[in-house]
Write a structure and sequence with these properties.
mainly alpha, two-stranded antiparallel sheet, 5 helices
Amino acid sequence: MNFNNPRHAWWRLTTAARQSPDERHVTAPYGFATRVAALAFAQELTMSSVVERVALRAFGVACLLAILSVAVNYKVLSGNGAPVAVTDEFALPADDAVAVVLDLTD
């Protein structure tokens, strides 16, 4: 079977198909975009993983804890309430936040 033979039926069919004009409509029918949008919103939500479901809540809790920690330690962070120990190279706070927390547990 030699498909390159001009007398072969496949060769004649593909040549005729290349020469025929394409008269199809290239525009979408009226209301097509509306139907596509309606089908997109009608789809059921797929089941997401556990991490995806609680990620936003975990982010909110982390933000609240960060704001709470800044509010609790505002005096120490602002420098008004904590004495500062001055060494030769740089100034260090006299009360370490970790030491204060560990002292509270005793």
